[in-house]
Amino acid sequence: MVEINAPSPIVDYVRWYTEGYFGSQQSPAQARLFVHGVPPERWRSVRQSRLAPPLRRAVLRSAPDMICLVDDGCRAVHLLPPVASEHQSLLVVVRILRALVLRELLARNHPFFHAACFALRGMGVALIGSHTAGKTTTLLHALGHPEVALVSNDKFALVPIAGSEPIAALGFPIQAGIRAGSVLALAEGPLRSFLVRRWSQRYGDVEARYSRDTRLQVRPQELAAAVGSVVMPRCRLGMAIEPHLDPQATIPRLQRLNSADCKALWARNLLHHPATVFPQQAAVADPAIRAELRIPQIPAYRLIQPPAAGPLTVRLLEDLMCRTAVGE
Q1: Which domain of life, per UniProt (predicted)?
Q2: Whole-angstrom distance between the N-terminal and C-terminal Cα of the chain?
Q3: By the 8 A CB rule, do 239 and 324 touch?
Q4: Angle at 318 between CA 256 and CA 325, to 5 degrees
Q5: Closest among 145, 139, 172, 226 to 20, alpha carbons compared
Q6: Which of 107, 105, 119 has the alpha carbon at shortest distance from 157?
Q7: Mean pLDDT of all residues in the chain?
């Protein structure tokens, strides 16, 4: 559960940004965040005041002018922004909240991975692999399927399912960074139209193919809404897919990974420490927390596909899901 005590504009912004993710029934982690207003005449005295344990002062790289007090005993953070209504302060509140939830997940030994995830007919498909391997492009293609729901576009935690052996992927409210090539690889439809319009508003003509470092930042809730869907913040994980782009390939195909390759795949994408995920908020994290690798007992496949495989890839994964469900 997430508890936030702050002025209404901040609470409204956090609710909008994290919609669908931090519900009391979804997250096994607890986080408490308080945002306080300080009169200008008391600002200097508060900033220079001495603290008694368990309170400690943290300096935020993303907002050095903000007073940040961490209460490790209650696993809570108190923020005192110079001007509570500033947009930058709103973003910092969201980032601190995510860092707190992540810290609690790692403290409970729930590993966190750099990977995307979607649910196809309720079963989770993890997209895990190296940088620029095609995870985002594959995810965007999958969102065009009427029975696909977005879980997480970039990172997720593994959490147990109560009373059962399988595990669940727990999504996180992080914006998707979408390159021009991923947009242009999409077939004509609502999602491509939405992304082309947003790209044009932010950068101009998407056909210009900006550098690989240029990305359009989009909330996962907006991606889901563009195809008439919603985010599914948590789902039972059924398989892992390692995308691999091959310009010489004519059709997408799958290769089953052996146990050693599967372990190496998950190990390469394990996020070991909160600072790895949110470096600007590293000061609020417990430096003693380290993630431990747990290999999900699910089948893993290497997806070899041409750059514009699109719907063919989704149909291949759907067929694989159906065959896996009946034990093949």
Answers
A1: Bacteria
A2: 39
A3: yes
A4: 70
A5: 172
A6: 105
A7: 84
Q: Check residue 58 and give its pLDDT.
A: 86
How much is the pLDDT for 241? Answer: 93
Question: How many Å apart are CA 235 and CA 242, to the nearest integer?
Answer: 19
85-118, pLDDT tens digit by residue?
456 678 888 888 888 888 888 888 888 899 999 9
Secondary structure (DSSP) of 221-247:
HHHHHHTT--B-SEEEEEEEEEEEE-T
Please provide the CATH number assigned to the domain covering 112-325: 3.40.50.300
Strand ranges across the sheet with 67-71? 2-5, 31-35, 76-80, 67-71, 55-58
Taking every pair of Cα atoms in the chain, the longest distance, rounded to a whole number of angstroms, is 70
Residue-wise over 128-158: b if at least 16 C-beta within 10 A, else e? bbeeebbbbbbbbbbbbbeebbbbbbbbbbb
Amino acid at 315: R
- Output the DSSP codes for 286-303: -TT--------SS-EEEE
Record the pTM. Answer: 0.87
CA separation for the pair 183, 189 (Å, rounded): 11
Domain residue spans of the chain: 2-107, 112-325
What confidence score (pLDDT) does residue 88 get? 64
